[in-house]
TrEMBL record:
Biological process terms in GO annotation: biogenic amine metabolic process; glutamine biosynthetic process
Lineage: Eukaryota, Fungi, Dikarya, Basidiomycota, Agaricomycotina
Family, as annotated: Belongs to the glutamine synthetase family.
Protein's name according to its UniProt entry: Glutamine synthetase
Cell division as UniProt keyword: no
Length: 483
């Protein structure tokens, strides 16, 4: 993983010097739901295991869901049969930073290894992404990415959420005020803390503003390598929730908290660079002046042939990897399509189009070096490691197979095209998305292998089962009296 700071230690001596005045260290890994799972360690214990294979960490974190409910079926990682034996938690020294709102305690991320083989376990988010990045790297290419989060803020605490049973919650501000300079002044300390503490926490931001909706913010994380971006995206959520608790605010990255309002996106920007640092999605200077003559459509005339292959690969496999982009029951309620909420639900692409699932961003809208794709399907509830892994694995498949772009871009489609089948629709629920991903012929199995797909698919089946068994307020209000 890319070093977030030049102070990251490389040897035991450097580590001891770095932690000279500390008494404890915080470490954490990531589970399949994108939840940080970690603990404090004494400095002495940490130093003793930091440059070895790692330390024991209970495998149950891959055997239960985000609310610590054990999965309803036996999965490959962590099960009753082996008694939830320990995994190896391998400390990534390059992720060193200090947590400024916790008295600058040292912090490191870990990856999880099989204790017998010392290889990454199939379900570890950091390990999955690292494997894909290495596959891309074998082609002489490097993955770069950016993430944007939209998220609601509630003037609540974890205690009041429970007391109110998550109903009648108070938004931090009222009304629909996107890009407002006034609304940020109502909670200026909290708003600015998110930006300033992110800088101190080695999670640099590019932009931070209000978005449309009561108490909604949008934050764009600074573009960087894909592995660093995934770490930063997870850590920004941790930061926002931590700062919020200190100020009596609960930021929510739930994809669709309100049925009648836009949901919360987790848009991902991606590009590839060669060994010389050249963006391979960008066209040459001569092509830029005249428009690429071999482009499949006019909307890709400022996009390279390799970029088209990558885009075609993502479009081809998109329906089969949807749970990796939209992993929750609620996330599919955000994907309503149409112009109102800009949450596409079909396999579409378009030049600078926010109505498409994949937006091509290229000259003349941006400098040539900034040419990229924006994947607009994920919500803010995504696991960025899995989402980025899926995008790059599909894109690499497209390059290797030299896939051609399907159908016309969104600018050439009509509303009737969805009804006639001219446009391929994305799965509309986690249940159908998981069923599609688990098919024997699924593209997900081709690019990720059976072990990962079966394990992750099993966790999503668990989520679906809990939803199917739940009795909601809507059902009670609709049927209790009149049915």
């Amino acid at each position: 993983m890319q070093t977030p700071t030049s102070l990251a230690p490389k040897t035991s001596a450097e580590l001891k010097k770095l932690l000279e005045h500390d008494t404890k260290v915080k470490v954490a890994g990531i589970d399949v739901d994108g939840v940080l799972r970690g603990k404090y360690m004494s400095k002495e214990k940490f130093i003793s295991v930091a440059t070895s294979d790692g330390f024991g960490f209970c495998s149950v974190i891959f055997g239960w869901d985000m609310h610590d409910m054990v999965y309803t079926k036996e999965l490959l990682i962590s099960n009753r049969a082996n008694g939830y034996r320990d995994l190896l938690a391998s400390i990534d020294l390059s992720t060193f930073r200090r947590i400024p709102w916790e008295n600058n305690v040292p912090f490191f991320l870990v990856s999880f290894l099989d204790p017998d083989t010392k290889e990454p376990i199939c379900a570890d988010p950091r390990g999955v992404l690292r494997k894909v990045i290495e596959q891309v790297g074998s082609k002489g290419l490097k993955c770069y990415a950016g993430c944007e989060y939209e998220y609601f803020q509630f003037q609540e605490t974890p205690h009041t959420l429970a007391e109110k049973k998550f109903t009648n919650l108070q938004p931090l501000t009222s009304g629909m005020h996107g890009y407002s300079l006034l609304r940020t002044q109502l909670n200026t300390e909290y708003f600015n803390d998110l930006f300033d503490e992110s800088t101190k926490f080695e999670v640099p931001l590019e932009a931070h503003h209000t978005e449309t909706g009561p108490g909604v913010y949008e934050t764009a994380l600074a573009y960087t390598t894909a592995d660093r971006m995934a770490d930063n995206a997870i850590l920004f959520k941790f930061l926002a929730k931590s700062i919020g608790m200190k100020r009596g605010v609960v930021p929510s990255f739930m994809a669709k908290p309100w049925g009648n309002l836009p949901g919360c996106s987790g848009h991902i920007h991606v590009s590839l660079r060669d060994e010389h640092g050249r963006n391979i999605f960008a066209v040459s200077e001569s092509e830029l002046r005249s428009g690429r003559s071999g482009a499949s459509h006019s909307e890709t005339r400022f996009f390279s042939e390799e970029g088209e292959y990558f885009l075609a690969g993502v479009l081809d496999g998109l329906p089969d990897i949807m749970p990796l982009l939209v992993p929750t029951i609620n996330g599919y309620k955000r994907l309503v399509g149409g112009e109102a909420f800009w949450a596409p639900n079909a396999v579409t692409y378009g030049y600078d189009s926010r109505a498409a699932s994949i937006r091509i961003i290229s000259p003349p809208s941006v400098p040539k070096a900034a040419t990229r794709l924006e994947i607009r399907v994920p919500g803010a509830d995504m696991n960025p490691y899995f989402a980025l892994s899926a995008i790059y694995a599909l894109g690499l498949r497209g390059i290797e197979k030299k896939l051609k772009l399907p159908g016309p871009p969104i600018s050439q489609l009509t509303p009737e095209d969805k009804l006639t089948g001219k446009v391929k629709m994305l799965p509309q629920s986690l249940e159908t998305a998981t069923e599609r991903m688990l098919r024997p012929e699924s593209v997900a199995r081709e690019v990720f292998g059976d072990d990962f797909v079966d394990h992750f698919g099993g966790t999503r089946q668990h989520e679906v089962r809990l939803w199917n068994e739940a009795v909601t307020n809507w059902e009670v209000e609709r049927y209790l009296e009149l049915a």
